[in-house]
Amino acid sequence: MKLILAIKLGVILGVYHGVLSNTDDGAVENSQQTILNEFNQQLAQLEERHQQERQRLVQQVKDRQVQQAKDRQGPHQSEILEEFNQQLAQLEVRHQQERQ
């Protein structure tokens, strides 16, 4: 990203130098402002894209960590509790049948 910014800055400065050698002072100020505005706009766009890409990568890492934690955890506690309750109910039924 720094390389891209350096290249764009070089191009802008080259254009700026060319403008300086071919125009009068009033036009130079307008050209300077135009070049600066364009540079700032491009820089803002690059920063926005960089931030979006960073957020996307951070979300991917978080999702991967959550999935890995789920994989290591095995069955969820609610599933284990449900299975335990089913087995307990079966034992109670058998116990009732044996009493009769």
TrEMBL record:
The keyword Signal applies. Residues 57-74 have a biased composition (Basic and acidic residues). Residues 1-21 form the signal peptide. Keywords: Signal. The keyword Signal applies. It comes from the Eukaryota. Residues 57-79 are annotated as: Disordered. This is Uncharacterized protein.
